[in-house]
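Holo prediction — zinc ion.
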Amino acid sequence: MYISYNWLKDFVELDIPAQELADRLTLAGIAVESVTALGEGIEKVVTGQIETISPHPNADKLVITRVNTGEEKLQIVTAATNVSEGDVVPVALVGARLAGGFVIKRAKLRGVESLGMMCSGQELGIDSKTMPADQAHGIMILPPGTPLGRDAKEVLGLNDYILELDLTPNRGDCLSIIGVAREVAALTGKPFHLSEPTFPELEEKIDGQVQVDIEAPDLCRRYIARLIKNVRIGRSPLWMQSRLRSAGMRPISNIVDVTNYIMLEMGQPLHAFDYDQLVDHHIIVRRAGEKETMVSLDNVTRELNPDMIAITDPSGPVAVAGVMGGLTSEVTDHTTAILLESAYFNPVSIRRASKTLGLRSEASIRFEKGIDIGGCLRAVNRAAQLIYEMGAGEVVSGTVDNYISPVTEKTVLFRPARATHVLGMEVTRSKAAEILSNLQFKTQEAGEDLLVTVPSHRVDVGREEDLIEEVARLYGYHQVPATLPYGPTTHGVKTREQSFRSLIADTLAATGFNEVVTYSFTNPGVFDLMNLPGDSPLRYTIKIENPLSEKHSVMRTLLLPGLLEVLANNFSRRVQNGAIFELGRIFMPIEAGTCEERTVLAAAAMGRAEGSWNTPARELDFYFLKGVLENLFRVLGTAAASFLPESANPSFHPGRTALIEAGGRRLGLAGELHPKVLEKYELPERVVAFEIDLDALFYVSGQPRVYRPLPKFPGMERDLAVVVKKETPAADVLEVIRNTGGELLSTVDLFDIYWGEQVPEGFQSMAFKLKYQAGDRTLTDAEVSELTAAIAAKLSERFGAGLRS
Amino acid sequence: MEEKLRIIEKDARQAMASAGSLEELNEIRLKYLGKKGELTQVLRGMGALSAEERPRIGQVANEVRASIDQELAARTTVLKELAIGQRLKEEGIDVTLPGVPVLRGGRHPLSIVSEEIQTFFLGLGYSIADGPEIETDYYNFEALNLPKDHPARDMQDTFFINNQTLLRTHTSPVQVRTMEKMAPELPVKIIVPGKVYRRDDDATHSPMFSQVEGLAVDRRITFSDLKGTLDLFAREMFGPKTKTRFRPSYFPFTEPSAEVDISCVMCGGKGCRVCSHTGWLEILGSGMVHPQVLEVSGYNSEQVTGFAFGMGVERITMLKYGIDDLRVLFDNDLRFLQQF
Ligand SMILES: [Zn+2]
């Protein structure tokens, strides 16, 4: 909403500059987005009349004009084509400044002297969208009779400031000059004045000439019609055009301009029908029928539905109430009588209709916020006054006012004690009464309290809290002290699960992983990218009804595709090494419309950990990932986890992937991604990743840590190298060693694995460091050697393992 | 014999004093004091001495021995000192060479800031609550005083799953969910971090973003408590000199409602490009919980009051780190992520 500073002055005295006014409004909840000085920097532009136009001797596209500026007659050469002799136009004199800092100089155009320039709207800083179509790109033509030699800024209303409001949806009343003027009056303490429109009416009465029936009283609670005869369609006066422009509207014709002017000034949208086109001069307000159609002003056939309010005559719809007029009853240049509509329509219905039709107009925006039902009559009368004053028509006596169960005024009890309790600041009854009266509320003392009558334009106020807010906001929020809540101490602590998540994220971050945040919605195509079969249950997703694009149309059932996309984006930017993780939700549909949200931990890594001058680079491979997970499990106190070969997951490399289990639960997968997946993502040859269910991990983690006394007796170490078949899993060998070593074997570390020379084809050598320890004595050499030999024997028995020295 | 001993003393001391290394010194020690050393040899001849001479010579021998030991110790100290000095001289390294690289990881800036916000409120006794991201129309709108066709629904362009289910547009549904669970227990003090969704995608809007919601409900929670709490919060997050400004605003689920500005973190309030020359930056919305919301959640609004606030984590993160492009937060470029 654009508010003209000068227009406000019609209703309230203003003695503060525009910027200060803007600041005060903002701090009272009427947010002012910007303050623009119209005509800023424009100087020495006056009104002038073109007396003659003659051809230029040396140029076809130029003409020489003689322009009378009242005091002198200037020769001006122009290329403009939309001017005629007798037109009054804005003339920039030599030395003038125009919008954008352009300066006019004495000039010679193709040998002919030119002493100034005729101006277009843009050159005066006027938006071309608010110029009449024929002047949008040419010289601005002022109405005939405009006095000559006058400052064009004055004449065009450019000595003004425009406040751009960013209104909250509850303040529909401020979608009008009057609404804002009321606020200004309450804020500045200056009186607000609004006079009743007065105008002469014709002898003839409206009775019998117009019939209005409201058949849908739930959708239309008030409908007023006024009849204007002897209409002369033409341009509206310049002052009105300027005011419409100041609000960003384009002047059209005197009648249309008046309806728009009233809407801007009072917030009441009006509609003008060509009276003679209304069948039987009979207006019926009803629900539109299913599939009923109407051709709208823009010559489009619109399909209506019963949610919409149709303004009809006996032949059918002539308008969709509050949203769009019909073509047949449109006011045209031939119109001689009009019916002016001023009505109150159901906000919800208007909102739905404008959504369904895809038409949001200045009128529908106001209707859907709820207009002042008590102001309908004044609005139509003010329109009649303006039409009369500008000589655009004569007003038939009286109105037809169908007002269904006129609203009794709302009264609300305001308890200063309650306000004090809510605000934490002393609110006295007298101060509250003063503030509320300034805002046009009527107050009456009721014991300690106030009985407050809400004016009809404040549709947003209906209960005590609304009044408390009014008092607080006019008082000024800065007046409220700053305190801290007072009450019993509460224990602010993360739940175990919340701490667990932070610990996971912090641990992964400490081991080289960067946390990423990816969208929860994804492209259904990712399942193909992940090489998943057509019947994979993961393809069963929650779909968004109105996605921004196919790319973001379903809720993810996997985190990994998002991570792979992140790696691919980085890779394409030549960031070739990196490890990332995300803790996020996946959305698994259960049945129609319901879903289970599970939190998942996923990570992926590509490339290598760069080395340095004394450190070799390290591949971010499966074993790196496994090490990270093992460390994570240690930090989380997870039950002993096993990594089991897994070759069935189509997204992963069948020979380089492990199923992770711990405490009898399946946690997830870790492994190298399938080459087909990597190819589709345009990722490098090897990328490793894991995806782990957080609930499962949480369930098997947080094992209590129990202190074990440090050994009191020295331990002993032995190295043992065995040669086993290449496909023998290390886990199996380790298991045999542990089982055979029993209690005395405290730790086993696999420190080398080797194949090649000295090891037969198809075999590998595994070297273990065995540490023996007894809690109650020093072990003897003999017993340790014996135990080691027993282990070797068992390995030989199980795996046919040979010893290697 | 005494003379012999004195000569050994003199020779040994001299030799030791001129020993150039610990090894050489050791050889000299062996030469004089070893099992076959000169002093030992001489002392072996003591048996041949007369009874009168023996104690005297014995004493001389002890003196000689002590004297040599003394020199040995002194020289050892000197030589050790020299040796360490030499070693330190030879062992210098270039400390300007880079260290062993550690694989660099870190939290996402949005998580860092979200946790920072949570930590502040944990310290004030708030707990952390959680709720679904796929939400019902009831909790997301209806229960928050936003019935169907309410114009304020336009403030939050919504992704729908169907006409009853949607992606939550704010973390506020968790207010109602938590109060429903707790009523009539008091106080309710929660903070709700989480992802929210709005159908907007341009330079300043992401269709998914993060919020932190706060709610305090008790018998005597006031608007001034809201001011005090957020004042403290702003100073904690943006520095002790940060000022706040509360502007009246409108949210259907709070009343009175306020938008909270902080003094611009870039210019300190003087006015700059970041704050559009106003000196203020809007960082959150807040207000007193609307009685209607308290009632549907199971509290008597005459007896209980509360405040609520909600903030966008992206906005605060951008202000804290001077990030001027929202998109980098969701782009996940490792070169960006590794800056935090
Ligand atoms: Zn600034």
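READOUT: The two ends of chain B are 83 Å apart (CA to CA).
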